[in-house]
Amino acid sequence: MAPPIPPQAGEPGPAAEPAQPAFERAGAGAGAYRRPLRAGDIASGPFLLSAMERRLWKDNVEIVLTPTEWTLVKLLMEREGEGLSRDDILNAVWGRHYVGDLKIVDVNIRRIRQKIEIKPSDPKHIETLWGYGYRWNRSGDQ
């Protein structure tokens, strides 16, 4: 294969076009890269949630979630630091007219923790508020 022909004087070459970085540095010395935030994105600690793409990344690694899990994570991240009751979560994710067991919230939280926490039995990002519900904690020291 022949090498590419360089552009002639005055012709714009590939270097003349501004490069759009796919990812930007997440932090000095962090070694991780994160794409620039877009409208609808939510960033929290090591997490980036894209509303447009319906995807979640932790430390630039995609975490595959079901549609229900994604909706639940989005709700928690949007209301970061705020305690949400099981009823609030149930109404927001499953709808006010959901007929079934309230434990569906706990089951989905457990599944999400299995996917996002380093040690699911000692969660840092989704905190349990005993007797009430859950809270998203940005500064999960992991």
Automatic annotation (TrEMBL):
Gene3D superfamilies: Winged helix-like DNA-binding domain superfamily/Winged helix DNA-binding domain. The keyword Transferase does not apply. Residues 1-22 are annotated as: Disordered. Pfam families: Trans_reg_C. The keyword DNA-binding applies. Keywords: DNA-binding, Transcription, Transcription regulation. Residues 39-138 form the OmpR/PhoB-type domain. It comes from the Bacteria. Residues 10-22 have a biased composition (Low complexity). One of its GO terms (molecular function) is DNA binding. One of its GO terms (biological process) is regulation of DNA-templated transcription. Residues 39-138 bind DNA. This is Winged helix-turn-helix transcriptional regulator.
